[in-house]
Each structure stands twice: as C-alpha cells, then as structure tokens.
C-alpha cells in the first residue's frame, strides 16, 4: 500500500502533521499551483497501515485519514514491480 495526499483536496491545515506517531507527515515548504502548502511525506513506507493493511485486511492506525477535514488522505495499491532495462554510460 502507498500513502497518498490528494493535492486537489488538501487545504494545508497540517492536522495530519500533528497526529502521525511516526512524523511521516512534515510541513511543506512550497505552495502549489493553488497557493496551498501541502505537507510532504517522510519515508511513508514506515506507515503502520502501509505495511500491515494487506496482512490484517483492515485499516491500521489511520489517524491521519480520520482527522483530515477534507478527505485528502488515502492509500492506494502499489503497482507490481516491473523490471526494465537500465543502461549505464561510462
Ligand atoms: S489534514 Fe488533510 S487537509 Fe490538512 S494538511 Fe493534512 S492532508 Fe491537507
Ligand atoms: S496511518 Fe498512522 S502511521 Fe500511517 S501515516 Fe497515518 S497517522 Fe501516520
């Protein structure tokens, strides 16, 4: 699972920054096209829900999603890994 902030919904209130026990949400620094400073994610793979939802079949922790007043936080399935050719130039 991958943690996602929907920038089109986020209003930059930073409530998610306050509640995450792993400080995955960090205050953003740059306004986006709408002038909203959206939080940034620090190593979101550490999120309890990202790691364990598939195993237990339900949302774990999920406090950020619960507190977000604009329903801007969700998780999405990650694409299966696709091998692709990498060329290294010397
Ligand atoms: S709580 Fe929701 S609206 Fe507020 S900054 Fe976080 S993602 Fe954006
Ligand atoms: S589900 Fe919990 S651990 Fe994961 S990002 Fe949200 S608040 Fe942090």
From TrEMBL:
Source organism lineage? Archaea, Methanobacteriati, Methanobacteriota, Stenosarchaea group, Methanomicrobia
Name the domain of life this protein comes from: Archaea
Organism, as annotated: Methanoculleus frigidifontis
Per the record, a Pfam family?
A: Fer4_4
Tell me the protein's name.
Answer: 4Fe-4S dicluster domain-containing protein
Q: Which PROSITE patterns match?
A: 4FE4S_FER_1, 4FE4S_FER_2
InterPro entries registered for this protein in UniProt: 4Fe4S_Fe-S-bd, 4Fe4S_Fe_S_CS
Limits of the 4Fe-4S ferredoxin-type domain? 1-30, 59-78
